[in-house]
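For reproducibility, we list the full input for the adenosine-5'-triphosphate complex.
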Amino acid sequence: MEREQSCSALGGQSHPNHHQTLILKSIFFLDGYGEVLLTSNSDGLFWESVDSPETDGSDCLGIKLAPEAPAEVNFSDVYGVEFDNFGVIRKSKLAVAPSCILCDEYEMYRFKVYSFQRSKSQPAQWVLTTFTFGHKDQQTCQMWVNQIDASLVLQDERPKNLLVFVNPRSGKGIGSRTWEAVVPIFLRAKINTKVIVTERANHAFDVMASTSNKDLKMYDGIVAVGGDGFFNEILNGFLLSRHLAHYPPTPSDIIDCRQAEGNSTDHDSEFPAFHTWFRFGIIPAGSTDAIVMCSTGCRDPITSTLQIVLGKRVHLDIAQVVRWKKTPTSKFDPCVRYAASFAGYGFYGDVITESEKLRWMGPRRYDYAGTRVFLRHSSYEAEIAYVDTKSEDTNAKGKRVLCRSNCSICNTRPHLQHSHTGSSSRQDETRWLKSKGRFLSIGAAVISCRNEKAPDGLVADAHLSDGFLHLILIRDCHHALYLWHLTQLARKGGNPMDFKFVEHHKTTAFTFTSFGDQSVWNLDGELFEAHQLSAQVFRGLITLFASGPEV
Ligand SMILES: Nc1ncnc2c1ncn2[C@@H]1O[C@H](COP(=O)(O)OP(=O)(O)OP(=O)(O)O)[C@@H](O)[C@H]1O
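The corresponding predicted structure, in tokenized form, follows.
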């Protein structure tokens, strides 16, 4: 331990951002590992053991001491660095056991580097990791902290100011606890957060809708701590006044399977500006959390938080749903809603109606309500018209391509593209197909909607931002066959589409007309009564702080 330690700045190296980056090298003690030669360059930190071969990997009472520690960490994976005063550094992790008298412990100045590792059992899950380096000289530690801090500032994709909404009632009422558990990560990442704990339903919607664009621009994005329904509320509060697009055609605009009138995109002039930098994060605390599962590959508040603080970015398609008539007798009165994951009718609308009465049950309400609705086996008469996209969907004929991080399908075309329901140049080519009958359910999945009940989701090969909706029509069928279909949905690798009564259409827009008296839709888990509606998808309309599913 008395070995002379050196610290030398080896000179300037040109960084891609043209900042001068010093290469530092110094001997440190890495807690739980031993003495290392630590190097810092523009990419990250690297270290190698400097223990002599006899002591390297030495053992204590027959147990190998030097653990298999990683020997580098990239700054892109580091979310914070902190000076940690004077304290104990252990040569081996085993030294935490007081009985291990042979293991060395030293007292020195320390600094901590905060990063993550992928879980061995579930690679999509990110696990917090801290590297503690010790040195007898305080100034050396402080210099390294400053140097690493300077390198982290260069990671310009990272947010600095976030507006956070916490739903204390999410899931089993765990919203506030979930937020408290991840606050230290935001603090270490030096991100300023303005936190609003909601006091009622629609509180977050009202804040988003009433905040001016000028005030919103003080933030790099919005974080929702809650479930899909809560995120939907925030999304609608954001988009309804800012995304001014023409509506999709009404059911009566579709004459002879052609669209009578064309529509064109007309975004709010402020909107494209928001699109380029403003991002949304979701820290899962809800009952389903399908959007988080699809955009990160797991349902873990720590993973989602790390992807927010590290400034990950993935585009997400959004469906715009326009209700023309609420009931058969109501007058024509367009009402717009946005959905990030799913819009469903029949079975899905009935489950949400039942489960809303059972909120006190927490997430179990979906099982209970689902069973009741299944036993009822109600079917509904309706007509659907949808844009035929077979000619342009080259993947439909090929094999299933799952959406993953850096997905080649999601990255093929530019984002913020309107669905092709009627942009004038394509109007003549838009062909609509119709489907009429009695349906057990009608579902439109924007993303795969993977969740714990349906491990592959409703549509295994749906993508986060390919610009398509997956329309799934389940025609009235025998109860046992429907159960079979549902069990396929609940099985990993199941084939829920392989039934005669199931139609699956990849489309960009559809219209719906009910022939019943009451028609309830389920938009991202929220109830929406609609006798007549239309929906269209906007490709990559928003950006999430997420890296895509590592499935
Ligand atoms: N303080 C509050 N009190 C009561 N309800 C609230 C409050 N804040 C938000 N809500 C409402 O709670 C509803 C559901 O929230 P959330 O989506 O977070 O949980 P969940 O329904 O359990 O999960 P999931 O949507 O994933 O199934 C939202 O529609 C939201 O309007």
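Residues 130 and 547 are 22 Å apart (CA to CA). Residues 1-19, 60-65, 94-99, 422-427 have pLDDT under 50 and may be disordered. Both points were considered when choosing residues for closer inspection.
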